[in-house]
Every structure is written in structure tokens, then in C-alpha cells.
Amino acid sequence: xxxxxxxxxxxxxxxxxxxxxxxxxxxxxxxxxxxxxxxxxxxxxxxxxxxxxxxxxxxxxxxxxxxxxxxxxxxxxxxxxxxxxxxxxxxxxxxxxxxxxxxxxxxxxxxxxxxxxxxxxxxxxxxxxxx
Length: 131
Description:
Layout (H helix, E strand, L loop, with lengths): L2 H10 L2 E10 L2 E9 L2 H14 L6 H31 L2 E6 L9 E9 L7 H7 L3
Antiparallel strand pairs: 1-2, 2-4, 3-4
Helix pairs in contact: 2-3
């Protein structure tokens, strides 16, 4: 498993602020941010605007916008991980953190990569690391 290749691939596919939390033989745990580009943000805003009815509060708009952006990030991250799994011949898990209404330009993601079958669970490792 080539750590540098994995990190470079993630950076080239829209993830930023990569941070390795744990690195062991055949195991890599990292966090990063999936940054929404202008087109993704505009699409999310258009979707939220179409869903909100007259008289709804801003919180309703934000709920639709965050839901759209989280779904988009999960879909795009899934594609990124599938391609990485195929290219590197590794296994991977990922999860996204909650998207904050005041910081909607990116969402934090935690990732686990391993060579061979995953014997570890990402959530267990993050709990162990108190993340």
C-alpha cells in the first residue's frame, strides 16, 4: 500500500487539509475536507430555494441546503473511494462528519485504508483516537 500515492490521489480529487491520524503496517487512517466547488454550491442553493415555501424560516432553507450538500459529498466520495480501491488494490472505509450551517464550504471526512480485508472498523479507531 503506497501512502503517498493514496494521499496524492485524494488531493487530486478535491480533498484538502489531509491529515494522517494513524499509520501502521497495511493500515492508514486519515481525515480531510471535501471542498464544495462553486457549481456544487449553486446547485445546492437552487435546490434549497425550490424546496422552501413562502413563510418558511431560514433554518428550513439551511436544512435543505445541508442535506443536498451532504448527499452530494457522500456520492462523490463514494466514487473517489471506488476508483482508489480499484487503482491501488486496497480496501477502504469512510464517513463524513456533520456539516455545520456556518461552514458550508466543505465537509470533514475520515478515511481508513488497508491492504487486504478490513479487520478494523473506522468508527472504532476514531473512538480510540477520541475523534
